[in-house]
Amino acid sequence: MAARDYGQYGGVARALELVGERWALLIVRDLLVGPRRYGELAAGLPRIPSNILATRLKELQAAGVLRRAPHSRIIVYELTPYGHELEPVVLALGAWGAVQASGAGLAIALGGVLHDTIAAIAPSTTFGAALAYDFVYALEILLLITTLVLMIPLIRRNAAYA
Question: What is the mean pLDDT of residues 16-41?
Fold first, then answer.
């Protein structure tokens, strides 16, 4: 199923074989807020190539993490109960990744946390997602400006020592 077979039998290796491929956990993250159509998933992950998205969806479906389900004459992807068990893992990874940032990277990390938070509370429609993304990007710009303003005294102080 997965492109990688670590040849290990521990839980971490098995988990990585199931959801460790690139983009897989981001797909899971987006589905944690509710069912999504293929186009909504693609819009929420703007850099994912369509062939990779299709492949990851098939792999995650084969692993029992998600399923295709009919919803009002359309097909949506939704997490199975097994897939929902990944929620604390995804949240913990997000928090862990945000801690690794500093300086201007902090604004970017905070923007990512905001993205994840807004995605969790935004309506599961393309229109609602577009509004949420606009709001998040405005906040990211505000955070970046604030970070730069806070860094100016540090830059001046370091320039004085040079």
Answer: 93
| Location of structure tokens 């692993």 | 63
Rg, the chain, Cα only: 19
User: Residue 35 contacts by C-beta under 8 Å, 6 or more apart in sequence?
Assistant: 69, 71, 76, 77, 78, 124
Note the CATH number of domain 1-84.
Answer: 1.10.10.10
The domain spans of the chain are: 1-84, 101-162
pLDDT in tens, 133-159: 566 666 666 666 766 666 666 666 666
